[in-house]
Write a structure and sequence with these properties.
The complex is a heterotetramer, with 2 copies of chain A (426 residues) and 2 copies of chain B (152 residues). Chain A is α/β, with parallel strands linked by helices. Chain A has 2 domains: 14-45 and 313-424, Aspartate Aminotransferase, domain 1, CATH 3.90.1150; 49-310, Type I PLP-dependent aspartate aminotransferase-like (Major domain) (Aspartate Aminotransferase, domain 2). Helices cover 37% and strands 16% of the residues of chain A. In chain A, the strands form 5 sheets. In chain A, strands 4-10-9-8-7-5-6 form a 7-stranded mixed sheet, sandwiched between helices. Chain A has a 4-stranded antiparallel sheet with strand order 13-14-17-16, covered by helices on one side. In chain A, α5 (144-153) links the parallel β5 and β6. The radius of gyration of chain A is 22 Å and the shape is globular. The relative contact order of chain A is 0.17. Chain B has 152 residues and is an alpha+beta fold. In chain B, α2 crosses α3. Chain B is 46% helix and 19% strand. Chain B is built from 6 helices and 3 strands; from the N terminus they run ααβββαααα. The relative contact order of chain B is 0.21. The longest helix of chain B is centred in the last third of the chain and has 25 residues, at 127-151. Chain B starts with a helix and ends with a helix. In chain B, strands 1-2-3 form a 3-stranded antiparallel sheet, covered by helices on one side. The chains are: A alpha/beta (426), B alpha+beta (152). At the A-C interface, α2, α3, α4, α5 and β11 of A face α2, α3, α4, α5 and β11 of C. The structure holds pyridoxal-5'-phosphate (2 copies). One pyridoxal-5'-phosphate sits between chains C (102-104, 139, 141-142, 187, 191, 216, 218-219, 239, 241, 250, 382) and A (269, 292-293).
C-alpha cells in the first residue's frame, strides 16, 4: 500500500508543479495554462520521463526472449515495474498484473476472453439466458465491449439505472442481480458525476449469485489508495496515462486463480507453449495475456509514476483532490445559473466536477474557458447514456491532478462567470 | 483571435433565433448527423423541385438541431443561403464553406458566394469547432445526394 | 516515398552511432556491446526520444476530445504522425493508417474483425468451408490469430510449406489458393530465414480468387522502401519498436474502401457514433479502430523515427543492411561446422541471418557470444513450425540496424569461432 | 563470472554423456515440459516403490530430453541425486536446487544435499538460463506429485 512520506512536498505547491514542465506554458495569447483536464489524461512528471529515457539509453532490449545481458536487464526492469504496480494496487502477487495497451484494451481483453471460453474455462462462458450487468454511469469502455459480447454470444445486457440525486439506483437490486447474472461490470468512480458506487457491497452481492466482478478502476486508482484484493473484485482495469504515467500502457488486474484458467485474447509470440501449424497451446499468466512485444518502456515509466505517487502519499493525493473538488463544487454552485451534474457535496464522491450553465451549450462554455487559459473537457465524456439520463447531451467537466491548485479552481469559477457575462452581454 | 470575432453578432443572432427551424413536410430527403464527440445532432429535410431548365432547385430545408451556438447558427445561415437556389449552386456554396472552414485561416471565404456565412471564417482557427460548423452542412450534402439519386 | 538525402551520414558511421547512446555501453565485464538483435527490437535515436519528450513537455493532452488549445495541439501532432507514416509506406491517404499497440495487435485486429463480420460486412466473414492460407515461415503473430479465427468460425487453415532451399514451396499453388480461399496471410520477409516471398505474385493470385491479403510487414518496413498501394495488399501490419520507434505502438494499414466496411474490434470511447444502453453505432475509419486513448506520444515518436529513416534514405538503409548480411553470410559459412538457416547468398533475401553450429545448442552459442559482448537472439524466434520443418528446435540469429557495422559482423564471426573453440577444448 | 565456471567440467561431462537417459518401463508417472522461449523439451518418467516405513522411494527416473547443455546436464545430475532416495528427500533436494538457482547468486547451494548439482550455482547469475536448469527438475516435481496422488 501507499507509504505516506511525511516530508513529501505539499500537493499543488511550486515544488510539485516544477516537476511538470507543461504547466509553465501559456496559451491563447499569453494566458497561463490552467490545466483542469487530468481526468482525461494527466501530465507526466520529469522523473517519469527520465526513468523511461534512462531505461532506453542504457538497458533497452527485447524482454523475455534474449540470451544476452541487455535482454536480461530489460526483462528485470519490466518485471520490476510489474511488481511495483502489483504492490500499488494490492495484488497478492505480481503475476496478477497484466500489462495491456490501456484500460480500454484491458476491458476488451476480459470481454473477449469470456467469449473465447469453452471446455476447462466454461465458468467464464456466457450465452443465451445468461445476464451481464452494467450501470448507466459506465464509460463507453465498460459498456460497449459488453454490448458486443452479448451480441456475439446471445447473452442479455441489464443495468442499474441512476437516481435523480446522481447515485446508482439500487432499489430493485434483486431484480437486476439474479442467479442468471454471470458478470457484473461496473465503474469504481463515475468519470462524470464523481459518484462512488458501493463496489464492495455490489461485489458481495454478485459473488453470492456466482457472478464475476469486473471493475473499471480508471478514475479511482490515480487518486485513491487501492486494494483490489481487499475489495474482492475479480478483475480490474486502469490506464497509465491518467496516473502520471505514459500513454500506450494499461493494466488488467485479475485474481490469479481466475487468470489461470481464463482463455487467451490476443495471440502471437511470447504467450504460446507449443506451436504447430494446426494448433497451439498457451502458457501461464501473466504471459498468456501479453502477446507480442509488450509496452516495455511504458511499463517501466508507469513503475516510476507509481513510485512518484507513493512518495507523495496516496492519502495526501486523495485529500488534495477532494479539497479542490470541494472548492470547485462550492464556487460553481454559487454562480446563478450553474448546476453541478453530480452530487453537490464531497460526501461519497470523487474529484470529477461536471457542470451545466443555463442557456450556454457546454462547447461554448469550454471555448470561453479555453480563451481564459482554463482547459476543461466538454462533451459527453464517453458516457452518453448517463447524459441522456439527465436530459442533456453534454456537460463541461473539470478534473484535478496532484499539481492542481486552489488558485486554478478560482480561475475556473471566474472564467465560468466570465462566460456567462460574455454571452449575456452580446 | 478574440471571442468577439469567433462569436460574431451575426452568429449569436442566428443561434438565438434560427431561421427555417423545425421539420416540415413535404420533403424529398431526410438525413441525420451526429457529432460523436460532443453529442450534437441534426435532423435535416430537403425538398427539391425540378426547374424549367431541367435542373433541381432547393425548395425548402427544414431541420431539428441540438448543439452549440456555432452548429446552430451554421445550419441556420445555411438555410438562408441555399433555399431557392439551384442544387448545383447550393453545392458550390457548400464546397466554398467547407474550404474556408478547413483552411486553418488561410481562406477568408468568398463573400459574394457565402454572404453572412463568412462570419464563420474565425472557426477555422479552432480545429475542434470545425465539426460543429460543418454538422448541418454535412447533413445537407447527404440529403442533396439522396435527392439527386431519387430524382435521376 | 523515402527521399534520399544525398548528404546523409554513412550508415554505421560514428556520426550515426552517436545518435544511439546505448551503443556506448559495455557488457560482461567491460566488453563493448555488439548489438545484433535489431530484428527483435531496434534501439532508438536521441532525436526520437527528444521528439516524444518535447511533445510531452509542451503539447500533451487528450487527443480528439478536448475543447482547449493543448488538446488541439496534441491532436495535430497525433494526426501529423499518421500522415508521416502514411507517406512512408505508400498509403493513399492518412486514414488508411490505424495506430495500434503493435503488430501483434494489428494482426489480431484483422482476424477478430473478420470474425465479427455480419450483414454489410459479410464479405469479411469466414465460416465452415472457407479457407485461410498462411505459410510455414510465419511468425506466431501471423499464425496463431488465424488458428484461433478458424477455431472460432469453423474455417479451415491451409499453408504453403517450405522447400529445402528455404523458399516457399509454391509447387502446388493452385491446390492451396482455391476459390474457397478467403484470406491469404503471409509475411513480407521471414524473421528467421530472411527469405522474401513473392508477395506481389501471391497477392495477385489471391485476388484472382477473391481472397483478401494480409501482409506481416514487420521485418520489411524497417529497412526497405515500402509501397503498400503498389503491392496491392489489402492489409499490412508493422511495429514501431523495430523501426527506431518506441514500444507500445504499431500500425495496421488497410485499403480505405475495405476499412470503411470492416466491423470494429476493440470497442469503447472515441470509436462510437451514438451509444445507447442496449446498442451502439460506430464511426468511420481510422477512428473506428482506435478505441480509447491511443498511444499518442508513441505515435508522435514513431513519426520522428520515420523522419529519421527518411533522412538516412531508405535505399541507403537497405543497402547497408544487405552489405552486412553479405558479410555475415560469408563469414559464418566459412567457419567449418556452421550452417546458415536460410538462403546462403543475399539474392532475394533480407537481413536476418540465422545459423546453426554443429554440436553446440544455440542457447550455448548465444551464451558464449554474450560473454564476448555480442548480443544475438537464440530460440525459435516465434517461428516454431519453421524450425520444426528444418529438424531443429532453435537457432541463433543476428540482425542488423542502421547503426551496425562491418566490424561488428567480424566480431560476431570471431565470437562464433571462439564458442566452437571453447566447447571443443573442454 | 567466467564461462569456465558456468560451463564447469562436471556440467559439460553430464551434457555429453547424460546419466540414466532414455525412457524406460515400468513407470508410475510421466510428464512433459517445454521451455516455450527456446523450444527445449523433456519427457520424464518416474517409477516409485512403497518402502518398509510406508513412504515412497524413487526407484527410477528415465527421460528423453532435447535442449542446451545446461538443461541436459541438469536433468542428468538430478537423476543421480534422486534415484534411490525417499520421495520426501528427493523433494527436499528439489527445493534446495530451486532456491539456489533462483537466488541470483546469494545462495551457493548446500553441497551435502545437492552434491554435484552445486556446480549449477553459476547459472543463477544468468536469469535467462534459470529456466534451462529447472526444466527437468520441474518435470520431476510434477511427476512426483502425480505419483503421490496415484499412490494415495
Ligand atoms: C471511467 C473510465 N473508464 C475507461 C476509460 C478508458 O481509458 P483509456 O482511454 O485509457 O483506455 C476512461 C478514460 O477515458 C475512464 O475515465
Ligand atoms: C515477422 C514478425 N511478425 C510479427 C512480429 C510481432 O511484432 P510485435 O512483437 O511488435 O507485435 C515480429 C516481431 O517479433 C516479427 O518479426
Amino acid at each position: 500500500m501507499a507509504v505516506v512520506a511525511h516530508d513529501s512536498p505539499e500537493l499543488g505547491s511550486t515544488r510539485v508543479r516544477a516537476d511538470f514542465p507543461v504547466l509553465e506554458r501559456t496559451v491563447r495569447g499569453g494566458k497561463p495554462l490552467v490545466y483542469l483536464d487530468s481526468g482525461a489524461t494527466s501530465q507526466r512528471p520529469v522523473c517519469v520521463l527520465d526513468a523511461e529515457q534512462e531505461f532506453i539509453t542504457d538497458h533497452y532490449a527485447a524482454v523475455k526472449r534474449g540470451a544476452h545481458q541487455l535482454a536480461d536487464e530489460a526483462t528485470e526492469y519490466y518485471e520490476g515495474a510489474r511488481a511495483k504496480v502489483a504492490a500499488f494496487v494490492g495484488a497478492r502477487r505480481p503475476e496478477e498484473i497484466i500489462f495491456t495497451a490501456g484500460a480500454t484494451a484491458s476491458l476488451n481483453l476480459v470481454a473477449y476472453a469470456f467469449g473465447n471460453a469453452t471446455g476447462d474455462a466454461a465458468r467464464f462462458a456466457v450465452g443465451p439466458g445468461d445476464e451481464i450487468v452494467v450501470t448507466e454511469m459506465e464509460h463507453h469502455a465498460n459498456l460497449v465491449p459488453w454490448q458486443e459480447l452479448c451480441r456475439r454470444t446471445g447473452a442479455t445486457l441489464k443495468w442499474f439505472g441512476l437516481t435523480d440525486d446522481f447515485r446508482l439506483d439500487l432499489s430493485d437490486i434483486s431484480a437486476v442481480i439474479t442467479p442468471r447474472t454471470k458478470v457484473l461490470a461496473l465503474t469504481g468512480e463515475s468519470n462524470v458525476l464523481g459518484t462512488l458506487p458501493p463496489v464492495a457491497d455490489l461485489t458481495a452481492a454478485a459473488h453470492r449469485v456466482g457472478a464475476l466482478v469486473v471493475l473499471d478502476a480508471c478514475q479511482s486508482v490515480p487518486h485513491r489508495a487501492t486494494d483490489f484484493a481487499a475489495l474482492d473484485v475479480d478483475f480490474a482495469a486502469f490506464s497509465g496515462h491518467k496516473m502520471l504515467g505514459p500513454t500506450g500502457v494499461g493494466v488488467l488486474y485479475g485474481k490469479y486463480e481466475l487468470l489461470a484458467t481464463l482463455p487467451p485474447f490476443l495471440t502471437g509470440g511470447s504467450m504460446i507453449e507449443v506451436v504447430y501449424m494446426d494448433h497451439s497451446t498457451y502458457i501461464a499468466p501473466p504471459a498468456r495475456f501479453e502477446a507480442g512485444t509488450p509496452p516495455v518502456t511504458q511499463a517501466v515509466a508507469l513503475g516510476a509514476a507509481v513510485d512518484y505517487l507513493t512518495d507523495l502519499g496516496m492519502d495526501h493525493v486523495e485529500a488534495h483532490a477532494m479539497e479542490l473538488t470541494g472548492l470547485a463544487l462550492q464556487g460553481l454552485s454559487a454562480l446563478p445559473g450553474v448546476s453541478i451534474l453530480g452530487p453537490s457535496t464531497t460526501a461519497n464522491r470523487g474529484p470529477a466536477v461536471a457542470f451545466l450553465v443555463d442557456g450556454i451549450h457546454p462547447h461554448d462554455v469550454g471555448q470561453l474557458l479555453d480563451d481564459a487559459g482554463v482547459a476543461v473537457r466538454v462533451g459527453h465524456h464517453c458516457a452518453w447514456p448517463l447524459h441522456r439520463r439527465y436530459g442533456v447531451s453534454a456537460s463541461s467537466r473539470a478534473t484535478f491532478g496532484v499539481y492542481s491548485t486552489a488558485d486554478e479552481v478560482a480561475a475556473l469559477v471566474d472564467a465560468v462567470a466570465g462566460a456567462q457575462k460574455f454571452f449575456a452581454g452580446r | 483571435m478574440q471571442m468577439n470575432d469567433l462569436y460574431a453578432e451575426i452568429i449569436l443572432d442566428h443561434s438565438r433565433a434560427p431561421h427555417h427551424a423545425g421539420l416540415r413536410e413535404p420533403f424529398d430527403a431526410q438525413t441525420h448527423q451526429v457529432n460523436p464527440t460532443c453529442g450534437d445532432e441534426v435532423t435535416l429535410r430537403l425538398a427539391v423541385q425540378r426547374g424549367d431548365s431541367g435542373g433541381l432547385t432547393v425548395q425548402d430545408v427544414s431541420y431539428d438541431a441540438l448543439g452549440c451556438s456555432i452548429s446552430q447558427a451554421s445550419v441556420s445561415v445555411m438555410t438562408d443561403l441555399v433555399i431557392g437556389e439551384s442544387l448545383t449552386r447550393a453545392q458550390q456554396k457548400l464546397a466554398a464553406f467547407e474550404a474556408m472552414i478547413t483552411s486553418k485561416g488561410a481562406d477568408p471565404g468568398d463573400e459574394d458566394l457565402l454572404g453572412d456565412a463568412v462570419a464563420f471564417a474565425g472557426v477555422a482557427q479552432y480545429p475542434n469547432r470545425v465539426k460543429c460548423a460543418l454538422l448541418g452542412w454535412k447533413a445537407f450534402k447527404l440529403a442533396a445526394a439522396q435527392a439527386e439519386v431519387s430524382a435521376a
